Amino acid sequence: MIADALGVAGGAVGGVGIASAGPIDLHSGRVSPINIGSWGGFPLRDRVAAAVPGVPVRLGGDGVCMALGEHWLGAGRGARFLLGLVVSTGVGGGLVLDGAPCLGRTGNAGHVGHVVVDPDGSPCPCGGRGCVETIASGPSLAAGRGPTAVRAALGGEELAEAAGAGDPVALRAFRRGAAALAAMIASVGAVCDLDLAVIGGGVAKSGRLLFEPLRAALADHARLDFLAGLRVVPAELGGAAGLVGAARLAAIA
């Protein structure tokens, strides 16, 4: 399928970039997406390389590729120190520092959904407790909205509709999620000296319902002088950000 797609595109192929759910292992080229159990240790880079012999293949996490895509052609143009976030069924992220993707030792830098914001909070699928993902992801926001009978059928869009209609419980859920995201962004901002955070994903489509309380909470948390210019903006590339970032990753290899 990969070879066929490249053939349709035409022209010489200079490189292939892969944006994969993680964790990933840059050294072995294997991926172990938490939400795809059958892919534990899957040799993704080697499988792709076999389809395009002689072409360099570079593997990256989907979060860092999203950040790189937004930095290159999206809302992050011009920023030097950027955090990209995808807030949807989970909370993923990636970092672009001094204009370059920050991959980390194993390729997993930027897993900000597992920054702990409530040490006594709910258990997380990662095995930890109180991660921002347990509070701010779409399912977590919906789960905190109301009675169990209501929660089961309530998704992020329905929650946004309820909040937009003034439902006080739904509004409270958004404020709680925004506060958790703000605490995490302020912490990452202090560690990495960020100038911008770009947020995409389904939850981010709720617009002001998320961004207004998030920016207000961030102003409370980011009090150090060097964080005064830290901005939070919605992503521009939508679902294409990871693909754009993977292409950029291949180009700068």
UniProtKB/TrEMBL annotation:
Record-linked SUPFAM superfamilies: Actin-like ATPase domain
A GO molecular-function descriptor: kinase activity
Keyword Transferase applies: yes
Keyword field: Kinase, Transferase
UniProt cross-references to Gene3D superfamilies, sorted A to Z: 3.30.420.40
Domain of life: Bacteria
Family: Belongs to the ROK (NagC/XylR) family.
Protein known as: Sugar kinase
The species this protein was found in: Mycobacterium tuberculosis CAS/NITR204
